[in-house]
Structure formats: C-alpha cells, structure tokens
Amino acid sequence: MIRPAQSGDVPQIAELFHRTVREVNAADYTPAQVQVWAGEAPEPEKWAARLSVKRTFVCEVDGRIRGFAEFEDTGHIDALYVHADFQNQGVATRLLKHIEAEAARLGLDRLFTEASITARPFFEARGFIVLEEQEVWYRGCKFTNYRMERSIAARKPDPTR
C-alpha cells in the first residue's frame, strides 16, 4: 500500500534510510562516504523536518514501511529509498508509479532527480536520462551523483512493469 507519510512514520523512515545507505549504497560508495551520508545513527529529527515541507509517500507492507519517496510539486524526486531487505521486489517501482500519478494530477510534464550511483540503473530502466554527472559536497565529503529527468508525455509504457 502506498500512502502519504505521517509524523508517526518518522522513526521507521529514519531507520530505513540509515540501514539502506549502510547496507545497499555501501556497494557503490566508500566507507567514509557511507559514514557521512548515513550518519552515526538514525536521525528522526532530520526526517521530521523534511516531512513537514515535502510530499512524502511510504510503501507499507504488513504494517511496516518498506520504502519511501519524497516528491515536490515541481516534479523533483528528492529521495527514493527501499529497505535493505526488500530490494528488487517492486517497492521502488510502486513508489515511482504513485509519484507519476501525482505528477499527472498536478499537470507536470517532467520528473527529475539527482540519483546516486546505486539508483541510476533503476531510473534509467524507467526512461530517465542522465543530463549530467556531478560531484556534490555533503558534510565535508564529495559524492558523485547524476542529474536525471524524464518527460512524462514522451514516456513509453514498459510491458514488464
């Protein structure tokens, strides 16, 4: 089930983010980058603040959050994370489909994101193109990510989804 996040979801979102970066993104980033990105421990206050200013959706299965995404009215996908134990099970795809429906409802013509090295293949498989590889600084550490976008109008249906 995809639904809007609620304040009571913040502890699960913070834990999911922390664990996913440490267990999934660690394959594509250095230990130092993972440490900076994930932090020492989950940071619920950070996610509570983000929840108050972004549209956040969660994918819930059996009462537990398996993934979440942050979407802005501009078409920007600011975050898309799936629990480490639920990778490659359609959670991210379901969240993206929900975002697509929201974008269509808002009359947007494109979606865009800054995808991590880990997330780039997921977005490319769903029609996003890389506009630019970029290096960004976060908490004093340099990261590679990719500015990507996809036109909503030009999107061709994927028969495997």
Outline the structure in words.
The protein is built from five helices and seven strands; from the N terminus they run E-H-H-H-E-E-E-H-E-H-E-E. It has 161 residues and is an alpha+beta fold. The chain has a seven-stranded mixed beta sheet with strand order 1-2-3-4-5-7-6. The chain is globular and about 40 Å long.
- Give the % helix: 25-40%
Would you give the CATH topology of the domain at 2-111?
Aminopeptidase
Distance between the termini: 17 Å
Query: Which percent range describes the beta-strand content?
Result: 25-35%
The total beta strand count reads 7
* SSE-based structural type: alpha+beta
Mean pLDDT across all amino acids: 91
In CATH, what is the homologous superfamily of the domain at 2-111?
Gcn5-related N-acetyltransferase (GNAT)
Question: Rg, please?
Answer: 15 Å
Keywords:
161 residues; alpha+beta; Aminopeptidase; 7-stranded mixed β-sheet; 5 helices; disordered C terminus
Summarize it:
The chain has 161 residues and is an alpha+beta fold. The chain is built from 5 helices and 7 strands; from the N terminus they run βαααβββαβαββ.
